[in-house]
Amino acid sequence: MKKTLTWMALFVILVCGIDAGRYAFEHDPDMYSGFNQDVVSLYNNPDVYDLEHVEGVEDVIIAENLQKTMAANNVAAVVFDFRGFDTMGESFILLTAIAGCFTILGKASLFGTIPDKKKKEEAKA
Amino acid sequence: MKFRDGIEEKNVIVKCGADIFLPFAIVFGLYVILFGTVSPGGGFQGGVIVGSAVLLLYLGYGLKVLAKIINTEALRINEALGATVYVVLGLLGIIFGCNFCRNVFYSNGAVGDLVSAGTITFMSWAVGYKVLTGVSFLLILMLGLLRDDEEEEQKEGKTE
User: Fold this and answer.
1) Where are the domains of chain A?
2) Alpha-carbon span B32 to B125, nearest angstrom
3) If you measure CA to CA, which chain B residue comes closest to A76?
4) pTM for this predicted structure
5) Interface A:B, Cβ pairs < 8 A
6) pLDDT band at B150, cuts 50/70/90?
7) Domain range holding B136?
8) The complex's ipTM?
9) Taking a C-beta distance cutoff of 8 angstroms, is the pair A68, B106 a contact?
10) Is the pLDDT of residue B80 over 60?
11) Testing the interface with A: which of B104, B105, B138 to mutate, by most A Cβ within 10 A?
12) Long-range contacts of B64-70 (CB under 8 A, 24+ apart)
């Protein structure tokens, strides 16, 4: 049962990944290239920078945040919506760290194990 | 050190300090988790603040009381539960035909409300619950190593 569940989950993840790869291959992304941008004039006079017609990540997050997520906090929208994978990885790092600590230290530190050990030693003696 | 009913009595000043700061730590941490989406803070930070309450309990009362109060098995299971809830909320986007972690029902409340911005609020709460239980479990795991065999031998000698 466990093995079949694991293989099914892996299969679903594989299918999703292949579909995402096919989608990314078919559609060319709109990227901000910075072509024809006069950097020196921008450095001398930052007011020239056009905030309303930016092409890039800022365009999505600053201009379309309220329409897309309705979140009052931009950082929360980035952490849990635009970069949800990042947060998931962060929390899974904690999960794996605790699992490793539990396997290494669990028997030595958790309560109730040491008296059992003593009983075993007494029984052996 | 004194022993009464098999429980080690700690310093009075440390105990009173732990008594004073424990409710503040828990309430402030829960506030940071609940209002993570509309204020500075978030699930991770609030969870760590609530986890520090375990350390205050240890400083004030010692390991025996900690072991009596807190169920470590439940902490371990609830941590995995929080991670699962986060993944399920992220998969909602795929179920509704968008990509992972997409905000599918984002219009449930006015901007700035406690429960608004769709899945973001619930994801923040799930991460907060996961970090709260995980950090508490990790702290108990580490503090359990501090127990010496000498103290137990001392206790046995006193009770006899």
Assistant:
1) 1-30, 33-124
2) 10
3) B37
4) 0.68
5) 123
6) very low
7) 2-159
8) 0.74
9) yes
10) yes
11) B138
12) B64/B6, B64/B7, B64/B8, B65/B7, B66/B140, B66/B143, B67/A111, B67/A112, B70/B136, B70/B140
